[in-house]
Design goal:
The complex is a heterodimer of chains A (534) and B (63).
Chain A lengths: L18 E8 L3 H12 L4 E5 L12 E3 H9 L3 H7 L1 E3 L1 E6 L2 E7 L11 E3 L2 H14 L3 E4 L2 E7 L4 E7 L2 E12 L6 H5 L4 E5 L4 E7 L10 E5 L8 E7 L3 E7 L6 H4 L2 H12 L6 E8 L2 E5 L3 E2 L2 E3 L5 E2 L7 H20 L9 H25 L4 H14 L47 E4 L2 E4 L9 E5 L11 E6 L7 E2 L4 H6 L6 E4 L5 E5 L4 H11 L5
Parallel strand pairs in A: 1-2, 1-11, 2-8, 5-14, 11-20, 24-25, 25-26
Antiparallel strand pairs in A: 3-7, 4-7, 5-6, 9-10, 10-11, 12-18, 13-16, 13-17, 14-15, 15-16, 18-21, 19-20, 22-23, 24-27, 27-28
Chain B lengths: L11 H12 L4 H19 L2 H13 L2
The chains are: A alpha+beta (534), B mainly alpha (63).
GO molecular function (chain A): FAD binding; oxidoreductase activity, acting on paired donors, with incorporation or reduction of molecular oxygen, NAD(P)H as one donor, and incorporation of one atom of oxygen
Cofactor (chain A): FAD
Pfam family, one (chain A): FAD_binding_3
């Protein structure tokens, strides 16, 4: 009995004739829906096309990182993810029958969201659909793009539906159609990188009642129950446990999917007395690759259609959500006429280095898990042998370097610090959270940043007369109308001197820092972050 | 810091004898893992990535 039944969404009838739309998203998956919702909340009319009539099935993204939760917090869904998700922050690595290494992903207190929650992707997509509908997004299920014709000022699409076909012209086309991206294929864009010669079995199993595993990420190298290979275990909601068994390149993917092969593997791991049911089984190989550029004129790729990584590190879904977070406010600003079109080039300038960081980490993890030669295996095993007893070898153990938010340190949108600013989060970093008090109630800093430019002002009362710029005051002493930094963590994390201010972008990344308030400098920093500087 | 390639071992014959002795009775696979463990221990002792990079380049050049 499956733990989840997919909703079926009605396919709207096709329009009577050709249509034109400002923004069309292709693909109602995690990234496409996130992007559509973010755009709608910025006041942009969005149409979403999807060739299916439901959310994702089976085991897809499960580990939602703190930064992703903060993005969903901004979009109004963060609490829902946290409440349903399984919170964890500890990873444990075993070699043979002994623990080799453990790590804590959020050693620091004072953040609204945990390091990670585990949650099935379909839940997040269902809630995104609800939120998109409430925000007025035009969702068109079973509307499949059959052909694409990119032009200089618009993109023509041929759309097929059960009720008939039509032509849709989009000023902007956002391609979120997944790793196999038919749009990318139709445009003939090279998607290059490497394939890893290994196969993995994913088994999602339902275990009711007591389970001997804590809510941690457990990874085994060469365990007694699966000799010579690795195994990864994650807990999800609804008593579902995800198990990845490394199988090796020679495994037969069809045979390995059969229950008579899967059940003994799971039983060997859980022990003979633990009852379980199989919820989902698949066998897959990994790739790490990306497009050379994500923006191609009026067509912009986001998520798996733009880049693909191995799952060790949870960098696929989390990376894609960060793409959406990065792109939505920029496109909204261009459509409002507040920013020039070249602001969209900064999506490439920011997200390509972030993608390369994800690919590098994911590739190194996969090279550790699947050594490419006998020598590589000897080194890998030597690390694991030493890690058991010697602290120096533990940082070398790589079972996945878990998703960290990209620091857009080299972004052309960042400004040089105005005045001396010695410490704290640098421009390009996602704005750090901190506990604050507001009107006598405990609260969180990030909740107040909003989705437009915001100037965080520390221990000063100063409002620049810049149109559209909101100021948020953070004070060391309790002050009416300000966020009270009672623990001092906000000032510490931003490294803010009294009277200093930090300019936060609509995607809640730091754009600039001002040691002393200077209206001209703030104005110039906003121009730079909007792509308006020469 | 730079890799120091001047002769630094106080007892070169004694060092090689120690290494040979440590390998005694190991088959090829075990010997390879022993060498890897030893190299990891020594690399950690050095710590400096620039020196390690030079050492790897030097070892490849004479391989």
């Amino acid at each position: 009995m499956p733990t989840h039944a997919n909703p079926r969404y009605a396919a709207p009838p096709p329009p009577a004739g050709p249509e034109s739309r400002g923004v069309v998203v292709v693909g109602a998956g995690l990234v496409g829906l996130t992007l559509a919702l973010d755009l709608a909340r910025h006041g942009v009319a969005v149409t979403v096309l999807d060739d299916d009539d439901t959310v994702s099935t089976g085991s897809r993204a499960i580990c939602f990182a703190k930064r992703t939760l903060e993005i969903y917090g901004r979009l109004g869904l963060g609490e829902r993810l946290r409440a349903k998700g399984v919170t964890w922050k500890t990873g444990r690595v075993f070699h043979r029958d002994q623990e080799a290494y453990a790590f804590d992903l959020l050693p620091e207190q004072g953040h609204e969201y945990p390091a990670f929650v585990n949650l099935q992707q379909y839940y997040v997509e269902e809630w995104l659909v609800e939120a998109c509908v409430a925000a007025g997004v035009d969702l068109r299920w079973k509307h499949r793009v059959a052909a694409i014709e990119p032009g200089a000022a618009s993109v023509a699409l041929s759309v097929e539906t059960p009720g008939g076909d039509y032509t849709l012209t989009a000023e902007w086309l956002l391609a979120c159609d997944g790793a196999r991206s038919p749009l990318r294929e139709a445009m003939g864009l090279p998607f290059t990188g490497q394939v890893f010669r290994d196969r993995f079995l994913i088994a999602d199993v339902v275990i009711r009642g007591d389970v001997a595993f804590p809510t941690e990420r457990w990874f085994w190298f060469d365990p007694p129950f699966h000799p010579g290979q690795s195994v990864l275990l994650h807990k999800q909601p609804d008593d579902v446990w995800r198990i990845d068994f490394q199988l090796g390149w020679d495994a037969d993917p069809e045979a390995e999917k059969q229950p008579d092969r899967v059940i003994p593997r799971v039983r060997a791991m859980l022990g003979p007395d633990v009852p379980f049911e199989l919820e989902w089984v698949s066998v897959y190989t990994f790739r790490c690759r990306r497009l050379e550029q994500f923006r191609h004129g009026r067509v912009i790729f986001a998520g798996d259609s733009a880049h693909q990584v191995s799952p060790f590190g949870a960098r696929g879904g989390n990376g894609g959500v960060q793409d959406a977070d990065n792109l939505a406010w920029k496109l909204a600003a261009v459509l409002r006429g507040e920013a020039p079109e070249r602001l969209l080039d900064s999506y490439d300038a920011e997200r390509i280095p972030a993608t390369d960081e994800n690919i590098l980490n994911s590739t190194r993890s996969t090279d550790f898990i699947t050594p490419k030669s006998e020598a590589a295996r000897a080194w890998r095993d030597a690390v694991l042998e030493l890690a058991r007893d010697h602290a120096f070898a533990r940082p070398l153990v790589n079972s996945g370097r878990l998703s960290r938010p990209a620091t857009l340190a080299e972004s052309p949108l960042n400004s040089v610090d105005s005045g001396h600013w010695p410490a704290g989060a640098v421009p390009g970093t996602p704005a750090p959270d901190a506990p604050v008090m507001r009107d006598g109630q405990p609260d969180w800093l990030l909740r107040h940043l909003g989705q437009d430019f915001c100037l965080l002002v520390f221990d000063a009362v100063w409002s620049p007369t810049l149109p559209g710029l909101r100021c948020l005051f953070v004070t060391a002493e309790e002050t009416p109308g300000a966020l009270w930094d009672h623990s001092g963590l906000a000032a510490a994390r931003y490294g803010a001197p009294p009277g200093g201010a930090v300019l936060i972008r609509p995607d809640q990344h730091i754009a600039a820092r001002f040691a002393a308030l200077d209206e001209a400098a703030v104005s110039a920093a906003i121009d730079r972050a909007m792509g308006r500087s020469p | 810091m730079n890799l120091d390639t001047s002769p630094r071992l106080q007892d070169p014959d004694g060092f090689l004898a120690l290494i040979m002795e440590a390998h005694r009775g190991l088959d090829a696979e075990a010997a390879r893992r022993f060498d890897a463990r030893l190299a990891l221990i020594l690399a950690n002792q050095i710590g400096d990535m620039a020196v390690l990079r030079q050492a790897i380049a030097l070892a490849r050049g004479t391989g």
